[in-house]
Design goal:
144 residues, elongated, five-stranded parallel sheet, 0% helix, 61% strand, four-stranded parallel sheet, mainly beta
Length: 144
């Protein structure tokens, strides 16, 4: 019997204040953190997003995602609206950091699609990466 390489992937997900259909959410977050160390990990956070005709009201202070290692993925979606959804989001110190090689980082902040409406006030939003062959994307305040 021959055994091949075994790869372990760890996925960490946080979701707060996401509204669907006709629901309404109101969430206050303070000092929300995600940390991962090692290789081949996925880290995702979503808060203050609204879909359909949902409404979301979120205040977030000191939201951080930190990863170190290689071949990792980091996602953060904040205050995005689609359909006829509406978001009202205030963030202070939203931070993504990755250290290592071949990593991918994406931050979507206050984007609206369809007839969605997004009202976002963001203070001190940071993306930071160190290493080689990394990808980083920040999309804020777009409407389509």
């Amino acid at each position: 019997m021959k055994l091949g390489k075994f790869t372990l992937a760890v996925i960490a997900t946080v979701g707060f204040g996401t509204a669907f259909a006709q629901s309404t959410t109101s969430v206050n977050l303070y000092d929300t953190e995600q940390y991962q160390y090692g290789d081949h990990n996925v880290q995702a956070a979503a808060f203050g997003n609204a879909y359909g005709s949902g409404k979301s009201n979120v205040t977030a202070w000191y939201t951080r995602q930190v990863q170190s290692g290689d071949h990792n993925t980091q996602l953060m979606n904040v205050g995005n609206a689609s359909g006829s959804g509406q978001t009202n989001v205030f963030t202070d110190m939203t931070y993504q950091y990755q250290g290592g090689d071949h990593n991918w980082q994406d931050l979507e902040l206050g984007n609206a699609s369809g007839s969605g409406k997004s009202n976002v006030n963001a203070v001190y939003t940071v993306q930071s990466q160190s290493g080689d062959h990394n990808y980083q994307a920040l999309s804020a305040g777009n409407a389509n």
